[in-house]
Q: What sequence folds into this?
């Protein structure tokens, strides 16, 4: 009978021979779940363990707990983030996995270091939420544990994250809204939102601009506010931008419902009617503002996102050697009266 080799075990599990070797030589860098799976498979295949081999799963005492960290900036800024976190916690509890909240600053100094809990070996995986600071993302990408990011900064290539990236579909849905506005005869359309802040923001602008181009139009820089905008000064900066316009455009496509509702407040304050004078759309399906009830938006499914984040980090822990993934969660465009469609009864 052919002697079972490390490569045989690796091939049967779809992992690298190096990972199997790490387990049998007592090296670090392999999750507890994958370590148990390798030892169990080796036993089932009849592998001849050396005397110094690790204990088999059947010989072990209770397995150590698995700890997943949710590393998040400003979760209190919107119920949007809390809903995702709650779904992550709910799903991980089904798998008997501990969820650890790790709050990160929105901006950091050059000498900043990650919290010890993320890099001291007690955390087996990290889910990164609402983190868009370039330096902080780079520090997280260097952490020697499996990672899953929900969105990332535009300037950070997904290939440099050293982890999986989950995004909500943005380009197609914004394209649908833009086309809807164009078919109403609205030709002068502006875009409001910092497109360099997040990859999802950039993809929304991409859907907007490409749709204009399909209709033989070009995005008008003078009608759009797409540069850097302070997190806490959106309303003031949008107000100042509106004051620079020689005439109001026919519509604004906004990067989020938060931005759209701020814009609507400012337009109404100027005595303009929505959508008769100016149509407005948002993104997120966020109902925190009363104005959102009439807002055309793109519904983001927080529960699906939270579930996918939880399952993806568990998969990444189990399969650390598989290639990283970019995953899109579908969204749904919802047309309401802010773009000229009467509200449904």
A:
């Amino acid at each position: 009978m052919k002697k079972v080799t490390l490569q045989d075990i690796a091939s049967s599990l779809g992992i690298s021979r190096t990972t199997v070797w790490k387990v049998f030589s007592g090296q670090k860098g392999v999750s507890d779940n994958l370590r148990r799976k390798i030892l169990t498979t080796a036993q089932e295949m009849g592998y001849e363990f050396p005397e110094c081999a690790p204990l088999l799963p059947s010989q072990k005492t209770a397995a150590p707990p698995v700890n997943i960290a949710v590393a998040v900036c400003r979760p209190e800024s919107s119920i949007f983030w809390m809903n995702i976190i709650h779904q992550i916690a709910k799903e991980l509890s089904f798998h008997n996995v501990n969820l650890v909240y790790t709050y990160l600053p929105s901006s950091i100094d050059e000498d900043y270091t990650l919290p010890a809990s993320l890099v001291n070996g007690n955390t087996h995986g990290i889910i990164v939420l609402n983190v868009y600071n370039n330096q902080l993302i780079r520090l997280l990408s260097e952490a020697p544990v499996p990672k899953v990011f929900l969105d990332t900064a535009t300037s950070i290539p997904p290939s440099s994250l050293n982890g999986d990236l989950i995004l909500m579909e943005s380009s197609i849905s914004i394209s649908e809204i833009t086309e809807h506005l164009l078919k109403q005869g609205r030709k002068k359309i502006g875009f409001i939102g910092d497109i360099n802040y997040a990859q999802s923001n950039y993809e929304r602008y991409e859907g907007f601009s490409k749709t204009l181009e399909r209709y033989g139009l070009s995005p008008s820089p003078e009608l759009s506010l797409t540069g850097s905008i302070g997190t806490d000064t959106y309303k003031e900066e949008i107000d100042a931008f509106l004051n620079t316009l020689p005439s109001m455009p026919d519509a604004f496509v906004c990067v989020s419902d938060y931005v759209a509702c701020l814009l609507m407040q400012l337009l109404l304050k100027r005595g303009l009617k929505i959508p008769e004078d100016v149509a407005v759309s948002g993104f997120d399906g966020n109902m925190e503002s009363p104005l959102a009830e009439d807002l055309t938006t793109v519904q983001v499914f927080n529960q699906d996102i939270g579930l996918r984040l939880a399952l993806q980090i568990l998969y990444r822990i189990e399969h650390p050697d598989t290639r990283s993934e970019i995953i899109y969660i579908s969204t749904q465009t919802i047309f309401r009266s802010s773009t000229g469609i009467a509200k449904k009864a």
User: Anything to note?
Assistant: The first strand starts at residue 67 and ends at 73. The first helix runs from residue 6 to 13. The mean pLDDT is 89. The two ends are 74 Å apart (CA to CA).
